[in-house]
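Entry 14. Structure prediction run on the chain below.
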Amino acid sequence: MISIVILTKNEEKDLPGCLESVSWSDDIVVYDSYSDDKTIEIAESYGARVVRRQFDNWSSHQNWGLRNIQFKNDWVFYIDADERMSPELVKSVQSAVTSPDDCVAFRVERRDFWGQAWLKRVQASSYYIRLFKPEFISYERLVNPVTIVDGKCGDVNGFLNHYPFSKGVNHWLDRHNSYSSFEAQQIVESELHAEASFFTLLGKGLTVKDFNQRRSYQKALFYRLPARPVVKFLLFYLIRMGFLDGVAGLRYSILQSIYEYMIVLKVKEMNSGLDRAGT
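Output returned:
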């Protein structure tokens, strides 16, 4: 009924829990970027198929997977190794594909956790398109890709639980060091919506109905703000009331501010290199 695709790179710690949460599917594909730990052995022990490709960037990697992996079913659910489908979500997606009402994709609500603490108020985004027919989906951006849906999109109930700190803070920092490089490259190369005025971005960032398009305008607007790391901390911790998430909310808000500062510094460094190259 629904195929599963799991993106992996050295996920021996998280993969078993993820596979258990999707064990109801008759077609599980582990889409691996040449892991050198026990990821492949674990995947095969659970009866999953393994497809391997060298990772280049997020949108390119995901687009290749959707166009080249031969899924057994018309519908696909995309999940990362550090995510788990709740029982309610499993029931909801199974029901959704039985009566899709012309939808070609569905959004799910994700909950991020620090340990067992739900980061309820400081998530950058709660809704993600994860259930879809592959032929109607494409991705844009080098990192944190925007999902483009060619058709009607609906919503399903139940939570997709995400544990970004399952491998520790050091792993989170390493991963976001990589993410920040892609984000900086994206900013320097594309200058997202560079032709739009500040007020145009503000208006579209508040009013555009499609969530992913609205998010792209909000991101472009955010990149024009001065003192972005401070603004991000205040946004997460005070405006979104991250302080109500306790110590985990404070820690996460600080880490997000650090991540934003990494992007700022890398953009400056890249632009400096371009300036030197042009002289």
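Residues 53 and 173 are 24 Å apart (CA to CA).
Filed with the rest of this week's runs.
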